[in-house]
Amino acid sequence: MLLAAAALAVLPASGEAAAPACTGDPTRTLSTQPAFGLAGLYALPARPPAVLAVFAHGYRNASPSWAPHLVAAARDHGAVAVAVDYRGLGPAPDYRGWPAAAGARDLVTAGRYFAARCPSIKQVALLGVSMGGNMSGLALASRATRPGSSRPLFDFWVDVEGVTNLTETWSEASASAGGNPYAAGARDDIEKETGGPFPQQPAAFQSRTVVMRADDVAAAHPRGVVMIHSAEDGLVPYDQTREMAAALRSRHVPTDVYTVLRRTSARDPGHDQTTLIGDVAPSLADSDPFSGHAWEGSTTHIVMRTAMARLWALVGSRAAQPRDREYLVDAQAGTVPAA
């Protein structure tokens, strides 16, 4: 009812649908469908925004996971924030699918829509988690520009435990598929996206593997990249962040890396952390002191808390912009420079 009333309120006299305003109630999330035709959610700040945050969801997740982050972005940081459900994604509650190419285009569509609609926006940040690292990295590699301008669409990329090497992720999922239904599903969904397994479709894998597109990422001229990853991530291995960071730095893209060590006592019911020890010995998972793979909707997991803190620091302070620095993040020691 409320969404229908809001949609009617923005209809011009001609009866043709018009875009929503750039300000609104920051405590509410709104549907992106009436705005630009893609499923998803967004939130608007109370005052004209200077920042747009585009969030890319992970595997078997969707925009509802981002609702708390969307509201926090609009309410606490005065930003427009949007999360779209990639075209080709399966229905709730499973949200099956790995539509890397379509998802990247959808993120660009969302970014360009709000950049055109809200001229007060000065900075656009792209943040992807897990599988969303694949989609957001490809969105950046597309070299998208602001509407009516040659200026790059995305100023910053925040990659959180992201799949930047799709070929490696497919290989690992294939190796684990025999006794792991989750891994088997990921393998099948990736192969559906690429048209088959890697030996049969190497070009499709290469075009969707972000680390292989590092030249395109550099050519997009981001002002900087921040990568956050647990050293003991049992779902997306930490080596993918190391590989991607090396590729970007070698191409003179300023890249900071935050390596997360010990976790806090916080838990996300129904979204338990995934660690290497937990993969090998599930009975030891709860006693593992190290952080694992975070759920994107979490507001308590040390990886997601670090990601959000870095995002808002990036757009709020020149001193926080990447300079090829290394940090360790630890529940007891805090965030400290790494040797």
Number of helices: 12
Rg, Å, rounded: 19 Å
Q: How many distinct domains?
A: 1
Total strands: the figure is 10
**SSE string, helix = H, strand = E?**
HEHEEHEHEHEHHHHEHEHHEE
CATH-derived topology: Rossmann fold
Instruction: Indicate the structural class.
Output: alpha/beta
Approximate shape? globular
Please list the strands of the largest sheet in the order they lie side by side.
Answer: 1-2-4-3-5-6-7-8-9-10
As a percent range, the share of strand residues is 15-25%
Average pLDDT for all residues: 92
Top-tier CATH class? Alpha Beta
The share of residues in helices is 25-40%
Largest sheet: 10 strands, mixed
Regions with little confidence, pLDDT below 50 for 5+ residues: 1-19
CATH superfamily (homologous) name: Alpha/Beta hydrolase fold, catalytic domain
Describe the structure.
- It is a single chain.
- The chain is an alpha/beta fold and 339 residues long.
- It has a single domain, classed as 3-Layer(aba) Sandwich (Rossmann fold).
- The protein contains twelve helices and ten strands.
- Strands 1-2-4-3-5-6-7-8-9-10 form a ten-stranded mixed beta sheet, with helices on both faces.
- Strand 3, helix 3 (67-77) and strand 4 form a beta-alpha-beta unit.
- The longest helix has 18 residues, at 100-117.
- It starts with a helix and ends with a strand.
- 47% of the residues are buried.
- Mean pLDDT is 92; it is low at 1-19.
Secondary structure elements and pairings:
Layout: H1 2-9, E1 30-31, H2 33-36, E2 40-43, E3 51-56, H3 67-77, E4 80-84, H4 100-117, E5 123-129, H5 131-141, E6 156-160, H6 166-176, H7 181-194, H8 202-208, H9 214-219, E7 224-230, H10 239-250, E8 255-260, H11 276-280, H12 302-316, E9 326-330, E10 334-337
Parallel strand pairs: 3-4, 3-5, 5-6, 6-7, 7-8, 8-9
Antiparallel strand pairs: 1-2, 2-4, 9-10
Helix pairs in contact: 4-5, 6-7
